[in-house]
Amino acid sequence: MKRLLLFILLPLLWSSCFEIREEVTLHADGSGTIVLTLDFSESKDQVREYWAAGNVNGYRLPGEQDIHNLFRIIRNSMQLSGGMTDVSYSLDFDNFTGRVQATFPDVATLNRALTAVTRNLDWLYVPTIEADQFEWSGGTFRRNFPFPEPPEDFDYDTLPMMTRYLLETARVVGIYRFDQQVQRATNPRAEVAANGKAVRIQLSLAELARREATLENDISLR
């Protein structure tokens, strides 16, 4: 995890808000699309300053080629896992956003692709997630959250103030869209869209770290 923080998140220690967003569109036959976005745009002016300097407190910041290489690994991992189509990524270095998107024929294929991504990012100390992140039964969509929890003796209040600030201002957003109307969502933070066909959950990284909230959710459709 240390390398991941240095490689990707270091600039954020001196900036403010950023957002990690997953968007899943699921059709009635179980096929759909996924879009994963890392969005620094709210802090782009601050990030641009550090980016121009090339380093912060002696740490080299990743360059454009480094970021392209990382997103290529994610794209290639999805493509080579089998079954995913229209896999692509895009980077916007003016607004500091990155996006990976793909189409899947079924949720099992999506889960396999996401596991492949975590396996191929082990050099960044990203934990490999073998468990299914999504389930679909034809009437119920489940978002699991099988990521490792902090150790039982983890004490959030002992973290450095700047780290806590980063965790409290960073957002994790899940958006799930369907062909059918949503009947019920079990996560207390879930918000159903006005058209009744989408669910949105927004959490801070601090809430996840303190185990106060989760992306886990059962969404029943009409």
Protein architecture, described:
By secondary structure, this protein is an alpha+beta fold. Helix 3 packs across helix 4. Residues 1-8 have low confidence and may be disordered. The chain starts with a helix and ends with a strand. The strands form three sheets. Strands 5-6-2-1-9-12-11 form a seven-stranded mixed β-sheet. The protein has a four-stranded antiparallel β-sheet with strand order 7-8-13-10. A two-stranded antiparallel sheet has the order 3-4. The radius of gyration is 18 Å and the shape is globular. The protein contains six helices and 13 strands.
Outline the secondary-structure elements.
Layout lengths: L1 H8 L9 E8 L5 E8 L4 H10 L1 E2 L2 E2 L3 H17 L4 E8 L4 E8 L2 H14 L13 E3 L3 E4 L17 H9 L1 E8 L3 E4 L5 E2 L5 E7 H5 L7 E5 L1
Parallel strand pairs: 1-9
Antiparallel strand pairs: 1-2, 2-6, 3-4, 5-6, 7-8, 8-13, 9-12, 10-13, 11-12
Helix pairs in contact: 3-4
What series of H and E elements makes up the topology? HEEHEEHEEHEEHEEEEHE
Q: State mean pLDDT (0 to 100 scale).
A: 86
Strand content: 25-35%
DSSP helical segment count: 6
